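Dear colleague,

Following up on yesterday's call, I've attached the two folding results inline so they're easy to grep. Please treat them as preliminary; we haven't cross-checked anything against experimental data yet. The first protein's sequence and structure tokens come first.
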Amino acid sequence: MAVQKTFRIGVIGASGYTGADVVRLAAVHPHMEIAALAARAHAGKPMGAVFPHLGLAALPDVVDVEAVDWSGLDAVFCGLPHGTAHEIISTLPESLKVVDMSADFRLRDPAVYAEWYGGPHGAADLLETAVYGLTEHYRAQIAPARLVACPGCYPTAVLLALLPLVKAGLIDASDIVIDAKSGVSGAGRGAKQGTLFSEVGEGLAPYGVAQHRHAPEIEQEISRAAGAPVVVNFTPHLVPMSRGELVTCYVRLQGKARAGELREALSAAYTDSPFVRVAVPDALPATQHVRGSNYCLVGAYDDRIEGRAIVISALDNLVKGSAGQAIQNFNLMAGLPETTGLEQLPLFP
């Protein structure tokens, strides 16, 4: 058997939560060597000083992004904020494979990006070649790609639950209500009043009502599947926990469909998808059942209202919702089994 290549990778934005989770997973990946860690605010520090839980791994020190020698790398994971990511990615050598975890390359239309992200896209030419990285639905496009844009955490949870149902014509794509809840890590590591412990502890609060930036991303993909423009009702909430995400989708059924048919469609769609599991009828997806893992649990249930159903999806927002999905995509880009380095089971309790 041929020996698999070891890929030298860099992580830009290594001091953020998603960057740190890429490092955590890549450090034990059998075909990855972490060769560069970049984070401007922590340049010059050992990674263990930035994140003590990573201190046991043999990692390079954090440097400023300008100090990275790109010529020695095979791939880069980018965990920078939107608006900053495209500036850096546009300067990277074309020989590098890039897995971006920001929002900068998720929206296919630069006009939609400008509308929702407050200004024109700084690397619109790259949008034409960027591949949307929802692994289970775009494997064939991801494998040969140079630049993959990982979906947001909310879109990942929503789209894994709903795309097979829209494609199968089982639900009305024009009547979707999404109630979403996420742990506080989804807001990033930067100091913000709204994510202080005293602000979020012992409470539950909606945010981004009717204006969250993940809405157009969800609509882009559902519209693509439906073959017509779609607008969804999407409301996210902040939950006082570190990680985890649960979305509850209220849908109108088409024809005489029932929840049983929805579960069958989901099971058929994900037969060859090791990280998406369909819950049995008497089980409910929950965040504690996916914590720390790259798994997504989905389930479908009949509503008390005739002709409607409830579709629930749970994942870890930092793993399947970001860093784990990023490595899953990289595995495809590198010609590796997509499960490589990601088969750890959820942490419970």
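Below is the second protein, in the same order (sequence, then structure):
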Amino acid sequence: MRYISTRGGIKPVRFKDAVMMGLADDGGLLLPEVIPSFSNEELVSWRNLSYQELAFRIISRFVDDIPANDLKSLIDKSYSTFTHPEITPVVKKDGVYILELFHGVTLAFKDVALQLLGNLFEYILKERNEQLTILGATSGDTGSAAIHAVRGKTGISIFILHPHGKTSPVQALQMTSVLDENVHNIAVDGTFDDCQDIVKSLMGDLEFKQKYSLGAVNSINWARVLAQVVYYIYAWLKVAKHGEKILFSVPTGNFGDIFAGYLAWQMGLPIEKLLLATNENNILTRFITMGDYSVGEVLQTISPSMDIQVASNFERYLYYLFNKDTGRVSAAFNQLKLEGKITFTDAELQQVKSDFCSASVDRVATLETIGRFRKETGYLLDPHTAVGIRAAEDFLKDGIPVVCLSTAHPAKFGDVVIEATSELVPTPESIKRLEGMPTRCELMPADAQKIRERIIQAAG
């Protein structure tokens, strides 16, 4: 399997090189030359596999430069850290299936991919006798999951940028309480989009990227998207009967989680529709419903992991929407940079509406959904999952099974849940241990040059 860039400016690379490259050297995102497919018969034959076995069956389709036994070991090691034996269990409440993705070490869906990515990094670096400097941006959950995936690992240092004061207190503590020498937490005086822009700027400087061996843990890294494909297929196997199609509701801001669902669909998974759920930062909803992809101001909400305007993984979808025309992709992002928007043809927008539907859920509706769902089912939702549930409610009457991705444990957003339900959230032990722990973090301006200097300083 070879990987190419959405912008067409690199020679095809193999999987391990794609993992280490992160952002493609031409500024694009990496994708497989060909999307593997499976038949319905093969899919149904996987119904009784464990999560780890299923992950190997799927991921191995995209990996031909890691021996099978090594890949199996990496997958088994990655999911041994999860607290639920099913890794991503599915529960049914009030007519909707909830895919619980929060049983990893940081209680967020990012663990599913980042535990594997951390072990892949370690495996490849040991094989090549190389060093790696990970640079990542986070709106809350990616940072802590990435840090916990690589803390203390030989040959790896990590710099995580998060918007100062714009994550939940638990999200901040999960990052800043990790004091391992290879971990560098930077609170940026700005938004997540500022953090992401800095990462892309530094990763796009090829001389700097190569000199300091920069790698990516954000969902711009192909291995993250690949790992997320697995739980869509796992959920379908748990929910669907006789090959029926189902609808997935995905709360997302950066388009990575829902793109993994799109990829599973292209591989052959019977999906009726992908429902993209946003909060007040609704650029993706405006795009799907009105064809308007224009950047606005980032608003601070009660679902902070979705407080994003420029969705980095959107570029991967555009590659397919534009019929793999890399020149068209490059032109679109040049337009975004110059004009703050991307324009589309009527035919392209018609295709978008056949792939996705979308809804935006505001603060009032999110709180109401958390409170009502608790009263009616006894189940606690975090605010991101509540956005997905609320967006999906109009589809529950259609007779199509609906699976909502639950992206975080409610205890990570305890203040929001208390406001919605007037009750305390039971606190998991992993969060209790954070109370009173020492922390380390640097406050820096949203300035790529300052971050560059900090990386150089740490490298000695």
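For the second protein, one point worth flagging: Residues 110-128 form the longest helix (19 residues).

Best wishes,
A.L.
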